[in-house]
Amino acid sequence: MFSLLKFNFLIFYIILFTFIATSAFCAVPTMRISVENLDSHIQSKAVRMFAEKLQESADGEINVEVYTSAKLYQGKDVIGALVRGNIEMAVPGSWHMSKYVPDVSLLLLPAFYCRDKSYSEKLLNGELGKKLNRSIENKLNAYIPGSWIDLGYAHLFFNKNNIKSINGLQGLNIRVAGGYANEQRNRLIGAEAITIAWPDLKTKLSQGQIDGLLTSYMTIDTAELDKLGVSSVIEDKQYFPRYIPIIRASFWKRLDSTLQEKIRKAWSEVAKWQRDEAEAMQQASKKALISRGIEVVIPNQKQIQETREMLLKHQSEISSRLGISSEMIEMVH
Which contacts of 183-190 are long-range, i.e. CB under 8 A and separated by 24 or more positions? Predict the structure, then answer.
């Protein structure tokens, strides 16, 4: 009788363990995505659209949770959070990637100063882009599901209307989103560059702790930074910021091939829409800001050429400080 009771308990626990293990294996995976920007920003819009498309096509196979406005992590911290396993996906700005993958900083070098976006786009769509993606995946133990997405040209915006030239930045405190190359570029043209995280920017701006910032028309417009004193811009196209989609490899490998393909497809559809939308939003934001009184200064070609030539004299020093490989630099024409 006692042996039969023990046997029944053994069978019960085997069934219970099998049920728990099977349930855990069959549980619907959750993909948490952390975004720094506000819901109105093109990065956040693209990520939300991706989540919606994936949820629709996956039909219950995956849960996607999008956290905007740095509710989980600031942009500078999101890559580390993904590597540690705290989130499953991130779409960090390329300027934040240099800390982990130095070669990505190549796109911030003086060679790209005031160049048309097609210049870097062609490189990213070729062998250079493939090498960068492989480096990111290998160093972060991550997977890139598709194309990088655009923000748009970054220019110098000021809360002082008397800035009329690239040569008039001496002594000004300029906020950059991050990246040694962004800091050093602006120091070389006379400013004091300071990296300030997005959540802290409005406070610093309203308190007069900075004189200007390196960002895009859309960012100024959607965050209404003109209400905090931003009143002019030197449209110098310092660089062309992009965002890089990365998924934690350990999470990616858990998904079956069908679901992986749905993720790639959803991202591909969003990336195509996003590039056109980002450009349209930048133009609309510029128009809106001009109507609200923002003064636009467009440097002449002579100023641009002289500034680029001056910066290029320091490119070797900057690339060495950043640890960019000579192989990657040789791929830039």
Answer: 184/314, 184/318, 184/321, 185/108, 185/110, 185/113, 185/238, 185/311, 185/318, 186/156, 186/214, 186/238, 188/310, 188/311, 188/314, 189/307, 189/310, 189/311
